[in-house]
Amino acid sequence: NGSGHEANCELGMWKVHATQTIAIENARLATRIASATFHAAQPSRRSPHPIRTRHSRNARLVDCEPMPRAGEPTPGSLSIVLPAFDEAARIGPALDELFGYLDATAPDATAPDATAPDATAPDATPAPARLPPRIEVLVVDDGSRDATASIVEARPESARPADGPAATLRLLRVPHAGKGSAVRAGMLAATGELEIFADADMATPPDQLPKLVAALASADVAVGSRIQPDGSDMRASQPAIRRLLGRAFHALASIWVVGPVQDTQCGFKGFTREAALDIFAEQRVTSIVFDVELIHLARRRGYRVAIVPIRWEDVRGSRMRARPALALRVAWDLFRIPLIHRGVRAVVRDPDLQPTETTSNVA
Q: Which of 151, 164, 218, 283 has the fewest CB neighbours in a 10 Å radius?
């Protein structure tokens, strides 16, 4: 009976995994078909920065476009992607905080720009960074078993017109496959010229969004960092065991995968649309190590990466538990990231634009 029960459990787990894999592959196929249909009707044009890739082990390197996506980006637009799994208790307050900030800072065409400095004032200072005029918030429901999706659908922001002045809310449902998979689906479905993903618990306050937006004016990828310019670390508020595991994780990641990037796991990262299309199309890891893979891909592709110090608070309620199985999965994913992407080549760029890693101190 014991062995039969174990066999049934293994068969059930295999069926769930197979169903998730089929659903994800079907979604990828549908996206490519829709994208091909759209681009077939457009005038032929090539990217100024063609991407070199390898189609098979024995194929020669060829120039090709990044993987297309249905539709064109909205000019002057930002997509904020929030992955959510069983977040019914926290998603409502988090969206209240996010839209409270977005609505309060939305530009009003009929009112003077209160943030514009008076050029005649002797102590005039530059205006703070502004968010793009068009903003969409995309919640990716990662197969939640609770009311997460219905809470999002019932919010008034979901009924706002896409071409209106206020930030809008969309919901994307995907089969449960982990945070990395949910982020990937959201970033590939987003429509903004700039794309940022953040944790659904708002551990990074919404008022930090302008910092990533400002950094993306001169970078392709902006990585939020909880380590401040003075060396202080906002992760000090985490439990001691998580800090210890985090240091061990960083030691392995820095040696083998990401190099000098000190805070890989901050769930607050921004991308230009071109970089997002390219990097997330190559993403393969869906565990908690997916952030490391994104940074590794950005560096391999030669994108300009900005490290942006941000404010962050430790919000309790994480479902991650330090168990041997998780440790083995993390170690395995760290080990295989450079191997599965060993054929990735740098984006062909203007030779005057060298890839850089900078620390942005945008206020």
A: 164
What is this structure's pTM? 0.70
3-state secondary structure of 305: strand
Helices 240-253, 324-340: inter-axial angle, 10-degree rounding: 20
Distance set, CA 3 to CA 6, 16, 173 (Å): 5, 20, 36
Which of 183, 178, 153, 172 minimizes the C-alpha distance to 88? 153
62-64 vs 51-53, strand pairing mode: antiparallel
Distance CA 268, CA 203 (A): 9
Average pLDDT on 272-301 reads 93
The three-class DSSP label of residue 224 is strand
> Would you put residue 202 in left (φ > 0), alpha (ψ -120 to 50) or beta?
left
Q: Which residues face 333 on adjacent strands?
A: none
Contact 345, 54 (CB under 8 A): yes
Beta bridge partners of 139: 82, 171
| Residue 115 near residue 129, CB atoms below 8 Å | no
Residue 271 and residue 220 in contact, taking contact as beta carbons nearer than 8 Å: yes
Q: Report how far apart, in Å, the C-alpha atoms of 253 and of each of 244, 249, 306, 325, 347 are.
A: 14, 6, 18, 18, 23
Look at strands 74-84 and 134-142 and give their pairing.
Answer: parallel
d(CA 169, CA 137): 5
What is the Cα–Cα distance from 159 to 161, expressed in whole angstroms?
6
CA distances from 89 to 82, 144, 147, 167, 260 (A): 15, 12, 9, 23, 37
Q: In sequence order, which ranges of the chain are alpha helices (DSSP H)?
A: 2-40, 91-105, 148-153, 179-189, 209-215, 240-253, 273-282, 290-301, 324-340
How far apart are alpha carbons 272 and 100 in whole angstroms? 25
| Residue corresponding to tokens 């999706």 | 149
The Cα–Cα gap between 73 and 80 comes to 14
Q: What is the DSSP letter of 254?
A: I
